[in-house]
Amino acid sequence: MDKSSVIGIILGFIAVGVGMVLKGVSPAVLANPAAILIIILGTIAAVAIAFPMNELKRIPALFKILFGKEEKESVLDVIQLFSDLAVVARRDGLLALEAKLNEIEDTFLKSGLTLAIDGQSPEYIRDVLDEEIDAMKERHHAGALIFTQAGTYAPTLGVLGAVIGLIAALGNLSDTDLLGHAIAAAFVATLMGIFTGYVLWHPFANKLKRKSKAEVKRKEIMIEGILSVLEGQPPRLIEQKLAVYLPIKERMLINSGEKADE
Predict the structure, then answer these.
(1) Spatial CA neighbour of 122 closest among 3, 228, 7
(2) CB 89 within 8 A of CB 232
(3) What is the structure's pLDDT at 215?
(4) Most trustworthy range by pLDDT among 64-78, 164-178, 182-196
């Protein structure tokens, strides 16, 4: 499980709940069915109107990405993999890599290596894999946009809920106690709209964008690694070439390691 997502949500609820208590507001006021209906169902309705069904069907998968544990190999592991592949390719030839394909689970990497083994030109391989990355980026953008739009709609629906509540409150001007209670309840919808928009939906969209960026970088490293192996570059040179994608500390781990067999 992605701990940062869970921790962030918990801290968000704690911040609002404790803040309300410190301000003398009972968290019990949040148990407002009308406000919950307007914000939650209203946001769902707005998103459903804004996006086609084929994109909405991906929402469960998006939540799995948000809260699921990252199981893919790290960039360091990918670089080490290409170093090992380069050793095999230089020693036994490029066709010897075909025996390694069954050990590779990443479909993008397997596809690129298959093209290289089949004798395709570096330019063709880069074009095909770049197109695949562009398609992936478009899918990721569409997924993040769902939460971005939800974060835009929710606060506005909160204002709508407050207006509805104030209309109800103005119908009780003769009863001061009831009027005060109605006005307070009216602003619960605004609170919920702002909270869900800026503590949940917008951060969810940002996390999806960050994960997409990391996946794009990982695939770009794979492209460079595949082409480097195809060109017959030495393993150590491939490690140094791909290390430029890493942060300084991780880059030093490669640079300080033992020299790969050439």
Answers:
(1) 228
(2) yes
(3) 92
(4) 182-196
Q: DSSP for 129-169?
A: HHHHHHHHHHHHHHHHHHHHHHHHHHHHHHHHHHHHHHHHH
**Arithmetic mean of pLDDT, 178-202:** 88
Nearest to 253 by CA among 75, 73, 72: 75
CA 130-133-136 angle, 5° bins: 155
- Interacting residues of 199 by C-beta distance below 8 A, sequence separation 6+: 9, 12, 16
For the chain, how long is the longest CA-to-CA vector?
92
Do residues 217 and 75 lie in contact, with contact meaning Cβ atoms separated by under 8 Å?
Answer: yes
d(CA 26, CA 168): 22
Give residue 257's pLDDT.
55
What DSSP string runs through the chain?
A: --HHHHHHHHHHHHHHHHHHHHTT--GGGG--HHHHIIIIIHHHHHHHHHS-HHHHTTHHHHHHHHHSPP-SPPHHHHHHHHHHHHHHHHHH-GGGGGGGGGG---HHHHHHHHHHHTT--HHHHHHHHHHHHHHHHHHHHHHHHHHHHHHHHHHHHHHHHHHHHHHHHHTTTT-HHHHHHHHHHHHHHHHHHHHIIIIIIHHHHHHHHHHHHHHHHHHHHHHHHHHHHHTT--HHHHHHHHGGGS-HHHHHHHHTSPPPP-
Residue 11: how many other CB atoms lie within 10 Å: 11
Distance CA 79, CA 72 (A): 13
What separation, in Å, do the N-terminal and C-terminal C-alpha atoms of the chain show?
Answer: 40
